[in-house]
Amino acid sequence: MSPEGNPVDEDAPKHTAEVLDELRTPSHVQIRSSSELADNVAHAASVEDKKRVEDGRAPMRRRTGYRRVQGVERTLTTAPWQVIHGIGLGAALARQGAGRGLAEHWGSLRYNQALAANRGGYLQLSPEGKDLLRFYKAAQSGEIGTGFASLVAERIVRSRYPDHSVSVIPADIALRAGWALRSTGKGTLPEPLKRRPHFFVEAWRPGHPSKVLLVASKGTHGKLSQVHKQLATAAAHVESVHMGAHGMVPFLLVDTEIPAKESLAVHVLEAPAETVLHSSSAGQPADLDLVLEDRNELPEVNLVRERRGERTVSGFQVRPDSFAWFSIVLARAEAATLMAFTGGGKPTAQYLTNEQGRRHFRHDNQAGTGSVRDARFQIHGIDFVGTDHVFRLNGTRVEAFSGLAADLYEHLHHGRVNDYRADVHALRAQWPADHTAKGWGPVSIRPDGSIMAMRLLRT
Q: What residues contact residue 144 under an 8 Å CB cut-off, 6+ apart?
């Protein structure tokens, strides 16, 4: 019943203020990682490979040696708005066509009402999220899964390297700097080249070599058995990329289970190791301000040394003499992501090679907007620069803002990645942790200096 004693229509749209309040309210998500999970994933991989052999296909190449994640927390506490922030960053460089702009830049806002806390304080799909599920099932599981995977991976790595900063970088964007990921008219890409990890997670300190691991992200609305199958496939995604010798780079396999009626759960496994991108230039750190052009690396991986040479398979391998180059690739891909998140255009293009999509960002052509990167707000006493978007949420006008701290934005706008990283590393423990701010509804500020915020527009 409503406070006035009238029956409550559960299908009626929520008041916009209530939606904004839910977006900023922290809730819990279960994190599940166990030896039993690893065994079930290995079994699912064995079953799938048996079927492939029966169909006349070779078994799928996968990384093995995964196990439960050591020391992982059993619960992730986060606000839905932080997940939406992660989804937005992950899609910032999607560049899906000439119509990009509002549809892509603000694509994460479709999940404004998709997640809600149950009585126990755990996140699950809301009624609106279940409606989205009917029409966007694959997109919803993939994008929500990506948001949670980036948050979980970042927190795991941050807990292990507390004196480092941690960046989550879309793998496809980074790989395109060295390899063509498109078919060339000579047939489709080999299967290992089509199955790629979703993120590189980089733990870094200015002036020191970075530590890197791979993340393969999945999401499902299906049963637990589907989680096992998806994680088995995720093991094939991380098999395609190697840094240094074959099979040595650590990885995380992450699958977000999104049941229709129960709370969400994130299933995660790892292959622990440490890959350090040591520079071969007499200990000198890589110059992150160096503008890169496309490389034309062979898409092959050296497996083992044999008397008659090296056996190779399809894949992507960053060899030790290219570690310094790849450090620059990762840093500049992160810079491009942050610039795209603030509004795209030429400041983004400067960080991308042609294969990475430089031409798509040479002009400020966001569909439906007259200007970008012209919104400036002070939130928690910090000046931010970015792009805003005014729209109606359940009939009420609201404003969404995505941007970057102004001083950090100035560094990246002018191509100063070294300065950006030096300053953001020094600030890593100083960002406000509040999920809201005076005059705003939900607010998310990440350690990279990016912000995503929303507020009611009073009439």
A: 83, 87, 111, 114, 115, 219, 256, 258
In the chain, count H helices and then E strands: 13, 20
Q: Please check whether residue 121 is in contact with residue 388, taking contact to mean a CB–CB distance below 8 angstroms.
A: no
* Pair type for strands 275-276 and 265-271: unpaired
Contact between 391 and 105 (Cβ < 8 Å): no
How far apart are alpha carbons 387 and 343 in whole angstroms?
A: 6
Q: Give residue-wise pLDDT tens across range 248-299.
A: 999 999 999 999 889 999 999 999 999 999 987 666 889 999 999 999 999 9
Task: Answer whether 0.90 is exceeded by the pTM.
Answer: yes
Greatest Cα-to-Cα distance within the chain, rounded to the nearest angstrom: 84
Structure-token pair, residue 199:
């993120």
232 backbone dihedrals φ, ψ, rounded to 5°: -65, -40
Instruction: Label each residue of 272-291 as H, E or C.
Output: CCCEECCCCCCCCCCCCCCC
Rounded Cα distance between 34 and 40, Å, is 10
What confidence score (pLDDT) does residue 394 get? Answer: 87
CA–CA distances in Å: residue 229 to residues 266, 271, 318: 15, 18, 28
The rounded mean pLDDT for the chain is 89
Q: Which residues pair with 378 in a beta bridge?
A: 383
To the nearest 10°, report the CA torsion of 180, 185, 186, 190: 50
Q: Are 224 and 187 in contact (CB under 8 A)?
A: no
Nearest to 105 by CA among 304, 402, 376: 402
Instruction: Measure the CA–CA gap between 431 and 82, rounded to whole angstroms.
Output: 14
| Terminal CA-CA length for the chain | 30
Backbone angles phi, psi at 202, to 5 degrees: -115, 125
- What CA–CA distance (Å, rounded) separates 360 from 57? 38
Please list, in sequence order, all residues whose beta carbon lies within 8 angstroms of the beta carbon of residue 325, skipping any fewer than 6 positions away: 178, 286, 292, 295
Cβ atoms 242, 314 nearer than 8 A: no
